[in-house]
Design brief:
A hairpin with a 2-residue loop joins strand 4 and strand 5. The protein has a five-stranded mixed beta sheet. It has one domain: Glutaredoxin (3-Layer(aba) Sandwich), CATH 3.40.30. The termini are far apart. It is of the alpha+beta class. The radius of gyration is 17 Å and the shape is globular.
Length: 220
Amino acid sequence: MLRLPLLPLLLAVLLTLAPAAQPSQEPLLSAAGDECSFSQDMAPVEGYLSLISMADPYQGTLDADVTVIVFFDPNCPHCRTFHPVMNQVIADSGQHARFFMIPFPLWQYSLVQVEALFVAAQEGKYFEMLDAQYAHQKQGGMSLDEVAVLAGDIGLDTARFRARVEQGLNQPMILERRAQIASMGVRGTPSVMINGQFVASDSRSRICMNELIAKVANDA
């Protein structure tokens, strides 16, 4: 039986920080001519670098002046739809920015999968595990048994992986960072931040993301 140190009291507090937290409902393809913009409803975050650490897996160029952070839940259907868009943006703009995928769990049942991501990261397989979780996403989340199968599929030792997930050593960090992200105004996923500025929901397209990254890089 899975026994994660979920810190019940802390978890209850965190999950009431954003009672309306839901996957974002937004178009992922902007029509030609639409203006690409940052959100007017969410204030820029000066301390955005505190949301990541050098231990967090990244894509792109580590010493770039532009930091893109994608907040996601592995069980969010809109995050799954947005994921290939971000992969295209990383391929397009990876020389100008560094990209971090930071979990913002919306549901308690997502915590096992988020823990699995960080366990996979210890073997350099964070993004492979994320791809696999999106590919097998299902309503209500995945069980530890199901996630362990994914671990084997991406080349991890299943028994060792399962033991590490059961320990739940990353749970305090996951929950504390979730609270920090929520305090900055994030209520749903996916949400995207470029150097502390939240991208407007109708600008989370390949064209607009590349345009905004280029603009920030030129201003840096």
